[in-house]
Specification:
By secondary structure, the chain is mainly beta. The protein contains two helices and 31 strands. The chain is 3% helix and 38% strand. The strands form nine sheets. It has a six-stranded mixed beta sheet with strand order 1-31-24-23-18-21, with no helix packed on it. The protein has a five-stranded antiparallel beta sheet with strand order 2-3-4-5-6, with no helix packed on it. Strands 12-13-14-15-30 form a five-stranded antiparallel beta sheet, with no helix packed on it.
């Protein structure tokens, strides 16, 4: 079975328009390009800031396709950043747990870095203990993408392209990848992924933005309330590899079918919680394949900010920032302590190539890969 045609979209809700304190930018849409530093090889990389006429902005660097900033209003109309990251490229190069990054060729883990296609065995880098994680030693988050500005009638954006060569990080096939970020005056940021290959391969792309709807990582996310539209999840072993089962979440710490504070059961003695040091698990979303469906909602009471996630993907990895330990100082000199950010990564399941009962992540030369996800930001009443 080959990879289905999907698409990824990040949306900032139109309900932000004309909130108190969120002044119009006189109808102008802006793209600002600034130097963001240089790689170790001396290649200059850039930061592109997209701003619509409501002053909602998103900043993206062509190093790793990283979303470095998302500035949206709170319930009082005050704009502030809600994602974790760094002020320049040096931080992302030296020490980044995939802050805001485009992830590929394969998001999440592959056991022992091994898989087979049509009887041919492939060996990938093992960069997470004995396992392969997020594309390997130099995944898509660590390459410099070719960037071109996009200007439409009602949108501005950034086109990023990259050719992952046959054998890169051990993957077969020359993979042509295009990622378009576009922002419109309805406060919608859309991310479209497209990929084609000249040889059968595996693909599982995602985005790894860390959110903190309150203060961009200055405090924990334990009081954020989370709801996930999933009745099942894929349990894992002690090294975070799925054991191949799909099990109900009822009567477990993974039951987020109703709004629950992230911190309520995060210290449970449940074996799966202990394995993940908290939440770092793939939830099997309710709904049909290729159907845009509600995946999750997060609410932060003090700011009134609400994040909704919709996707055509089959799974969502909820990660509660368990490996943040205070060793990273990010933007605005904020120290990222344990559980100061959360991720909701829409995806196919971890280690799918090694589990025949999981949906396929194979892509053939005559097919096109896309993925669609919507992160919709809103605010509640004062």
């Amino acid at each position: 079975m080959t990879m289905r045609i999907l698409s990824i979209v990040l949306i900032v809700s139109a309900s932000f328009m004309l909130l108190p304190g969120c002044k119009s930018n006189d109808g102008k849409m802006e793209i600002k390009k600034n130097s963001f530093g240089k790689t170790k090889e001396g290649t200059e990389v850039f930061l592109y800031t997209l701003k619509n006429h409501n002053n909602v902005s998103v900043s993206i660097t062509n190093y790793g396709g990283i979303v470095t900033s998302v500035k949206v209003p709170d319930k009082n109309g005050n704009l502030s950043d809600i994602v974790l990251g760094y002020d320049n490229v040096d931080g992302y190069i030296k020490n980044s747990p995939y802050f805001g990054a485009l992830i590929g060729r394969y998001g999440n883990r592959i056991a022992k870095g091994k898989f087979s296609l049509d009887g041919v065995k492939y060996k990938l880098a093992t960069n997470n203990g004995a396992n392969h994680l997020h594309g390997g030693e130099k995944g898509f988050d660590k390459v410099v993408w070719t960037a071109n500005e996009l200007r439409g009638k009602d949108t501005i954006g950034l086109e990023l392209t990259y050719i992952s060569k046959d054998g890169e990080e051990g993957y077969p096939g020359n993979l042509n990848v295009k990622v378009n970020y576009t922002l419109n005056n309805r406060n919608e940021l859309r991310i479209d992924y497209t990929a084609t290959t000249d040889k059968k391969t595996i693909v599982n792309l995602t985005n790894h933005t860390y959110f903190n709807l309150k203060d961009a990582g200055a405090s924990t996310i334990l009081d954020h309330q989370l709801k996930i539209n999933a009745d099942k999840f894929t349990p894992m072993d002690s090294i975070l590899i799925p054991i191949g089962k799909i099990v109900p979440i009822e009567n477990s710490p993974f039951d987020f079918r109703n709004f629950t504070k992230i911190g309520k059961r995060i210290s449970s003695k449940d074996e799966q919680i202990r394995f993940g040091l908290g939440y770092d698990h793939n939830f099997v979303l309710n709904g049909n394949v290729n159907q845009l469906k509600h995946a999750a909602t997060v609410k932060e009471e003090s700011t009134g900010r609400i994040l909704e996630v919709f996707t055509t993907e089959l799974g969502i990895q909820f990660y509660s920032g368990n490996f943040l330990d205070g060793s990273i100082t990010g933007k605005n000199n904020i120290v990222y302590n344990n559980r100061s950010g959360f991720c909701l990564e829409t995806q196919h399941f971890p280690d799918s190539p090694n589990h025949n009962n999981f949906p396929s992540t194979e892509l053939e030369p005559d097919k096109v890969y896309n993925a669609t996800t919507i992160y919709k930001f809103d605010v509640g009443k004062k």
